[in-house]
Amino acid sequence: MPTSFDEMFMAESMTGLVRRFADQSQERSFIQLYEAGEKLAPITDVVKWDEKRFSRDLAPITGPGSPTKAAAPVGVKKRTGELLSIKEHVDLDARFIMMARGAGSMLPDPQGVLNDNLMNLTNRITRTKNYWAAKSVLTTDGVVDPGAFPNADLPSGAITFTYPVQALSASASWATSSTLIRSSEINRLKRTYERATGERAGYAIASETVEGFITGNTEVTTLLSGGSMAGRVLESSFQNGGALPRFGDLDWKFARDYYAADATPDTTTDVITDTDLVAILPEPSRWREVFALAEGLNLVPTGNISAMANGNPLQLIAEVRGWAAYVELIANPIGLRLHVMWTGLLIQKMVNGVMVFNTTP
Question: N or C: which end of the chain has fewer CB within 10 A?
Answer without folding.
Answer: N
